[in-house]
Amino acid sequence: METDTPIQPIPSPWPEGEAVVTGQAGDVERWMSPIEIEPRLKTVDVASAAENEPPELDFVLPGLLAGTVGLLAGTGGVGKSILGLQIATAVASGRPVAGWQAFTPAVSGPVVYVAAEDPAEVIHRRVHAVAAVEPWVKDSADALELYSLADAPGALRVMLASKSRPAPNKRAQALVRALAQDRRLLILDPLRRAHGLNELDSDAMTSLLDFFADVAVASGCAILLLHHTSQSATFAGISDALAARGSTAITDGCRFVATLRGMSQSEANALSIDDTRKRLYARLEIPKCSYSPPPGEGWCWLVRGQGGVLSYVDAPAPGGAAALTKANVQQREKMEWSARERLCEQPYRSQACAARRSKYGEW
I want to staple 233 with a disulfide (CB 3.0 to 4.6 A). Which of 160, 238, 310, 329 is the partner? Predict the structure, then answer.
């Protein structure tokens, strides 16, 4: 990593001199082809599995298994990009993410972070701010590769919209496969810049997540996609897996989901936080871990410091997390389920919604 800038030239997996596909009409057709995924069927010996202890699972981060796809969803401006960078530095150095001891990688390893919309100058400032809080970043610089694609819009769009089905972009897919090779973690920020599809189309999102899952399995690299939460979820303060924007196929296709949101007014009131300090706090929650329990209690508070760097804090005011839970859990659940029903446009159809309605009555 060079001293004057933390950004490195993007590697080129295609022949020299050929331009990157931008996703513009007319430039795409000759790069369209069916998705080529080689079947990898593995037989499990039932008798052997029943008798012998299973092998240890290789987790890149607590809850995020190597060779799988994860998602970090957050509201706009809450700090998910800098948290993504802090996750990258944590895996590269083997240190806790933002100081949260329960969220510490088991081992360190090489990491690639691709910023598809932030310019190199902005990433440089973020790295400098993170290094001021986490001085070991400089020592692990050789294990961390940072790339900016702000000057190459569309270069990361692995799938593009077409009349009949999602059209793979061979150049962008080759780039993603090259970046994941021999790495422990690949972070793509944001997901929206990695495709040209309708995020509400479940079939399109399933195809997109299938591609990332195939890359993860083939390379053994964990892929973490940074994504936005929906406006309804942001308004209601929802922080579970349903908070992610777009089709539920996005979170269904991920084996690990984390969410990041600001402190709600009810939480600030319960914790005696004034409006000025309230803006400094963010809640990191891990509602989905397919292969392990979530780290710690499954969530924590982070406080924003100089340069927007996030740091772990205990319950940040008198009363603590226990008082917050007792005072507001019913109100929060009512708000969350009401928001889900509005999104589904089929209120009280499911057993879960009916049970909530029975418990809380009309609202």
Answer: 238
